[in-house]
Amino acid sequence: MPYNAAFRCFAGCPGRYPLTQPLYRCPTCNGLLDVVHDLDALRTRSADTWKRLFEERFRRGPWPLGSGVWGKREWVAPGLPDDAIVSTDEGGTSLLRADRHGRALGLDELWIKQCGTSHTGSFKDLGMTVLVSVVNQAIRQGLRVRAVACASTGDTSAALAAYGAAAGLPVAVLLPRGKVSTAQLVQPIAAGALVLALDTDFDGCMTIVQRLAEDGVVYLANSMNPLRIEGQKTVAIEIAQQLGWSVPDWVVLPSGNLGNAYALYAGFRMLKDLGLTARMPRLAVAQAERADPLYRAWTAGQRDVAPVVAGETVATAIRIGNPVSAPRAIKALDEMDGVVEAATEAEICDAAARADRTGLYTCPHTAVALAALEKLERRGIVRRGDRVVVVSTASALKFTEFKVKYHERALPDVESTWANPPVHVAPDYHRVLDTLERHAAAMT
Ligand SMILES: *Cc1c(COP(=O)(O)O)cnc(C)c1O
Ligand SMILES: [Zn+2]
């Protein structure tokens, strides 16, 4: 293959390193790494040729090219041999038009990119297929580690455990004890990973796993590792493809460690650089108010994101106080004329419930994005005629406790305005009929 990609310092220090090297920081400045592609080589195919190629493969194949990630393999991890690829046919998720909810928010065109309808139920599959495939190849080439490992708020560990198990690689996950949902906890348990429950928060887990990686004990699977971002950027490519190779006016997404915000930027940037699209969308990064270090920095006009201690939020997957990818997110905001918005617990819960009432079943993180979108629309930053895509990051089926508590009015500090608890009725035709008639007026 004439295409190639390599690690390079995010801040621009000289030096390039192979993707199979276990490297998580720039050897010169200790900063973040990026993956760079040979754009000139990619330009030997025209924009139209790339579009046709991506469309031909999309959700069709041949295996594994039907995957939303590997269908774009030349843009993601060129040079990786077929037999190293560990895929669950991830990506290719639907982009659905949420007309009723859009109208409720005062928008003509609201789309939801359903990244949660993936193998392990979150967008984390997109990055993990790339990372596990590359480490699979590195291990064949002689890399020795005890395990592939991550700190996680739940979804990263679920994805890593599944892909590791598919490849037959040992996996260890570090989770903040009691701070992930039951479904998220049982996913790595079922896949046979070593599940370490630590009495700390995500940031505490991250500090330990980073040290294990620096000491060469484990291979680091957190999004500090830019291989994750290479897979996740295909969401941007899919969105453009699904909109007929155009870009929306806004992309709104919930953010914690801030890797996905940069991934979207990376995808839209590449589309534009290679001539498949004409412009960049604007970016709205949404945070939970109780875990909002980027929002605080952004509204204060600071380019350095000071860590906070993240408080308790229903949006557990973005409960992160010290986001690793903060410099990447700042760049994405700069390049995409971005904004940052934060939502309170009450706003998040009601946004989820209202969206659910229109047939969406939204995870609390997607609800953070929807709540932020509502605030941006009210302030006139997002306008009625704008075409808006909200990135839904996980399946709400992983967050049953949250849904149940909301409808039982059991969430602290939340009024549960749209609670819809079941009605207990005697098993009698006339009682059922009465109840139906009494409630019919309330059903909308
Ligand atoms: C990981 C995750 C996020 C946040 O992504 P970052 O790249 O950490 O900002 C949002 N929502 C869900 C459901 C997640 O699992
Ligand atoms: Zn550097």
TrEMBL record:
Enzymatic class: lyase
Pfam families: PALP
Keywords, in A-Z order: Lyase, Pyridoxal phosphate
Domain (Tryptophan synthase beta chain-like PALP) ranges: 86-393
Domain of life: Bacteria
UniProt-listed GO biological process terms: threonine biosynthetic process
GO molecular function, one term: threonine synthase activity
Full protein name: Threonine synthase
Native species: Chondromyces crocatus
